[in-house]
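Summary for the lay section of the report: proteins are chains of building blocks that fold into shapes. Here we show the chain for Glycosyl transferase GT2 family and then a coded description of the shape we predicted for it.
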Amino acid sequence: MSKRLQMLISAVDKDSKSLLEQMNIESDAVLVNQFIKTDGDNYEEEFQQNGHTVKVIGRREKGVGLSRNTALENADHEIIQFADDDIVYDQGYAEKILKEFDDHPEADVIMFNVKAQEGRETYWNEDFAKVTWKNYGRYPAYAICARRDKLVSSGVKYSLLFGGGAPYMNGEDSLFLHDCLKSGLSLYRTTVALGHEVSGESTWFNGYTDKFFYDRGVLYHFLYGSFASILGFRYLFNNRKTMCVKKGLFKSYHLLNQGIKHAKTLKKV
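The coded shape description reads as follows.
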């Protein structure tokens, strides 16, 4: 398995070695640990844990997109696996990932099953199939594995505008996969399961606030361009009984359109 699989972990204020034990890591890894609430200076270290090489990059900064890009820039293995610090992996996950890529040379990126905590499920793959423009938006980063050389040569990186620690709420994973498709990478989904999410509070969701709808508009501009307003209305209408109960459909839509308008002034980073 040497130099084949490398996990890219984004963490915040964690003790590196205890986190790796908790996650049940059985592959090489790059761990980017951002200091937000704790003290510490920037540092880099490399050590062996359970026979695997781990590079830890400690940074006094915030932003999940920045964290994932830093990890990718420091990766040097054939297959990379994005991960969060609240995932526990099943025994044998590494071999499962490598087998899927070996069995499917046509795949540049594969989305694996990882069981989310109850109430936060966005997907569960029930077949092996190509991921297209119709269904790419459901996958979190911890589902994504890729051939590193294909990903690097495509130039696709995580946006610094969206996600935890960024100016706007979640959506960075959808935008990342959007850019993968746009660059011509071949994306697939698989029924192979790798682990589960540990229960905890969301790092970004604070209810259906003004910011929620505004930020959704910013995201939709980058995802859908001139169709952002139309698809934004469809999104709100389909979810009006949950999302728009307090503000109403048209107030929510107004906020979303304000976000779309603002996004046109932004440069994508």
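Put simply, here is one thing we learned. The domain at 5-197 is CATH 3.90.550.10 (Spore Coat Polysaccharide Biosynthesis Protein SpsA; Chain A).
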